[in-house]
């Protein structure tokens, strides 16, 4: 359900893939470095021509019992569910149960601009409907079961952020509404439609509509990291539905991707519609560039779970990873995985941290503003940990890596302080922003 950064572009040339050149041992070492330094818990899989060439699982599926994950450990995949929902909508179109041009006032007349919003607008995030997971009170009720009536009232209350089809902006509300439309046209719960139209035909053995996490069924709990792994509350799966309620494994996601882009779920004509980008959004997928190569896929995030999958049509290569605890930028992990696949150089990270006393942090505390971006950053401390909080966002912990240099790996942020000059430099995604202490 969270909006995550899509795989970044690498400015390098990539050659042809030959699975025999794949260095499994180096990628193992990469993930072992992440595990050893509490940077990532989860599973990864890679396939070529429909055949899995690599799997790896690290960390704990349940920290309390020290249960280790394996290839069939199941994770909430969050917004990757949207690829499934989009395929189901296109399947319903092929079965003449709906039209993509139909305005949603047919189903939800009380939603603002419903007579101007098409099913197509929902699919590629051009509806203007406010994203309810961005609302300030969302985390106060997301663990409570909600009915269709209650969710519709929440979405109606959120209103519209822009005129329909005037631009694109990511909204989970769109895919909750698409889930309800599927249930109306098939007269079945979303979970049954998913099973009947995708899971059974494709043969996905570890994919299903989620419920309360069941460790006995080899499902993982999720966590965030604050000096140790801390368990996250569970979003009730009645809320995300087709926007984020599916549970799966990396191997199943590869099988789904191979079937979807191989024309085994929807027709070639429907697949072209799905892949057609407008303001960078397709139907339930994005384009993910890697050098000169391009994949289609999606990222996902819900509670402490994060995930990513992509399919390279020209190379017939798929990758997927699912995480129940990430203290590192998933974009870097995806780049490392694909560098290994396409035989490109990548480094095994070293995590050097320095130990500071609480009084050492005092020189960095304060409010910082920038002429480069309309953002303020407040720097505080919690015992021996420096904390940063940007306008309208949650506070996050910083790790000291060198004199005056701190990082937050999960978002790829590096902060360099210059106390004598009362300045701070923020580096993220190769972009540098200068801040002055107020």
Automatic annotation (TrEMBL):
Domain Beta-lactamase-related: 42-328
A Pfam family: Beta-lactamase
Domain of life: Bacteria
Membrane-spanning ranges: none
Protein name listed in UniProt: Peptidase
InterPro entries: AmpC-like (IPR050491), Beta-lactam-related (IPR001466), Beta-lactam/transpept-like (IPR012338)
Gene3D superfamilies: DD-peptidase/beta-lactamase superfamily
């Amino acid at each position: 359900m969270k909006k995550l950064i899509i795989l970044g572009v690498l400015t390098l040339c990539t050659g042809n893939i030959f699975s025999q050149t794949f260095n499994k041992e180096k990628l193992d070492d990469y993930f072992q470095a992440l595990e050893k330094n509490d940077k990532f818990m989860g599973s990864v899989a890679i396939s070529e021509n429909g055949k899995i060439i690599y799997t790896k699982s690290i960390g704990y599926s349940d920290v309390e019992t020290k249960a280790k994950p394996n290839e069939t450990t199941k994770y909430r995949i969050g917004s990757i569910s949207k690829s499934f929902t989009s395929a189901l909508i296109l399947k319903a179109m092929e079965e003449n149960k709906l039209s993509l041009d139909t305005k949603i006032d047919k189903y939800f007349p009380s939603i603002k601009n419903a007579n101007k919003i098409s099913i197509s607008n929902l699919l590629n995030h051009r509806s203007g409907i406010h994203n309810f997971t961005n609302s300030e009170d969302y985390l106060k009720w997301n663990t409570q079961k909600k009915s269709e009536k209650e969710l519709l009232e929440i979405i109606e209350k959120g209103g519209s952020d822009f005129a329909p089809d005037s631009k694109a902006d990511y909204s989970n509300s769109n895919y909750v509404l698409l889930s309800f439309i599927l249930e109306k046209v098939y007269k079945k719960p979303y979970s049954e439609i998913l099973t009947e139209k995708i899971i059974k035909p494709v043969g996905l053995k570890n994919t299903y509509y989620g419920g309360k996490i069941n460790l006995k069924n080899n499902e993982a709990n999720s966590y965030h990291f604050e000096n140790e792994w801390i368990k996250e509350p569970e979003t009730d799966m009645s809320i995300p539905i087709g926007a984020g309620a599916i549970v799966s494994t990396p191997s199943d996601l590869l099988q789904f991707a191979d079937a979807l882009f191989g024309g085994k779920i929807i027709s070639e004509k429907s697949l072209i519609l799905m892949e057609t980008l407008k303001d960078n959004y397709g139907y339930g997928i994005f384009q993910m560039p890697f050098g000169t190569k391009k994949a289609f896929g999606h990222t996902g995030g819900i509670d402490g779970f994060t995930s990513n999958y992509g399919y390279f049509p020209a190379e017939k290569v798929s990758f997927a990873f699912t995480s129940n605890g990430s203290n590192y930028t998933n974009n870097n992990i995806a780049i490392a995985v694909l560098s290994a696949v396409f035989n490109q150089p990548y480094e095994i990270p070293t995590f050097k941290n320095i130990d500071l006393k609480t009084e050492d942090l005092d020189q960095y505390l304060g409010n910082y503003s920038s002429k480069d971006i309309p953002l303020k950053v407040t720097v505080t401390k919690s015992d021996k940990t420096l904390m940063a909080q940007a306008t309208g966002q949650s506070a996050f912990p910083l790790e000291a890596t060198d004199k005056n240099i701190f990082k937050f790996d999960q978002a790829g942020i590096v902060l360099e302080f210059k106390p004598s000059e009362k300045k701070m430099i923020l580096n993220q995604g190769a972009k540098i922003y200068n801040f002055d202490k107020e």
